[in-house]
Design a protein that fits this description.
There is one protein chain. With 146 residues, the chain is mostly helical. The protein has two domains: 30 residues; 114 residues, Arc Repressor Mutant, subunit A. Helix content is 72%, strand content 7%. The chain is built from six helices and two strands; from the N terminus they run H-H-H-H-E-E-H-H. The chain has a two-stranded antiparallel ribbon with strand order 1-2. A hairpin with a 7-residue loop joins strand 1 and strand 2. Helix 3 packs across helix 4. The longest helix is centred in the N-terminal third of the chain and has 28 residues.
């Protein structure tokens, strides 16, 4: 019986990975290509979510080498997506923040994806199915925090 349950759980895990991957790709398709790498986008997402950080903090948060983050920072700065300022608590440090134009672009993309997903759910799911999705959000959140 345990083997059947493990097999079922493994099959569900594979399905979840596949379907969520498809949904993420569809959401990404809804906005124009920014020309940024996934690592650069991840850097901007961190800055939007957590606020200004040093390059060292950003590298640690993404699990990449400081040299790789330096390349990301240079590219993002050249694109006008980030700004630099002196750390008010430690003048030796430089804080990186998302620029106002990048923040506007990011938020516009978020709204486009939100509108698309709302429309897709309304067009393809019944109200009862939408409630099932709502109930599953907590479960996916718990998995994400594991």
């Amino acid at each position: 019986m345990v083997d059947e349950q493990d097999s079922r759980t493994s099959a569900v895990a594979a399905d979840v990975r596949m379907v969520l991957g498809q949904l993420v790709r569809r959401l990404r398709q809804q906005t124009e290509d920014s020309g940024l790498t996934k690592s650069q986008i991840a850097t901007l997402v961190l800055l939007e979510r957590d606020g200004p950080m040093t390059a060292t903090e950003l590298a640690r948060a993404q699990g990449i080498r400081p040299q790789s983050m330096a390349a990301n920072v240079s590219a993002l700065e050249a694109a006008g997506a980030i700004t630099r300022s002196q750390d008010p608590d430690d003048g030796r440090k430089t804080l990186l923040a998302m620029s106002d134009s990048a923040r506007e672009h990011y938020r516009a993309g978020e709204l486009i994806r939100q509108d698309w997903l709302t429309h897709a759910m309304t067009a393809t799911l019944t109200p009862e199915e939408i409630e099932q999705v709502a109930a599953a959000i907590d479960l996916f959140g718990r998995l994400a925090r594991f």
